[in-house]
Amino acid sequence: MNLPVELKYTKDHEWIKIEGNIATVGITDFAQGELGDIVYVDVDTLDDTVEEGEVFGSVEAVKTVSDLFMPLTGEVVAFNEELEEDPELVNTDPYGKGWMIKLELSDSSQIANLLDAASYKTLIEG
User: Fold this and answer.
1) Rounded to whole angstroms, what are the CA distances from 43 to 11, 16, 70, 95?
2) Within-domain flag for 24
3) Do the beta carbons of residue 45 and residue 73 sit within 8 Å?
4) How many domains does the chain have?
5) What is the CATH number of the domain that holds 78?
6) Per-residue pLDDT tens for 29-77?
7) Within a domain: residue 90?
8) Is residue 3 assigned to a domain?
9) Residue 105: which domain range?
């Protein structure tokens, strides 16, 4: 399983890449594997400020629909529009071209609440 050590993770199976005041968010390799083939990614919170823990969108797979939870409070400043035409990028490149949103952080102290790769690995291996 692919767990890049430079990323942060949530218990809801999202990854976060922090670059200054901007965080890029997607779902983990584990999550896409559990969901199966992704057919649609819905994010309707672009340009909205969303609180940590709130739903910012959903991902639809062949078998199920799953909510996406905001890992950090911030304004959603970008949505990966490639996913509209090519949602399977979430399956084929979850940590690269399969990213979902970028957000401008409101409270960088929340980063301390995120999991590192080792902690996330422990969570999913239970």
Assistant:
1) 20, 16, 11, 18
2) yes
3) no
4) 1
5) 2.40.50.100
6) 999 999 999 999 999 999 999 999 999 999 999 989 999 999 999 999 9
7) yes
8) no
9) 8-115
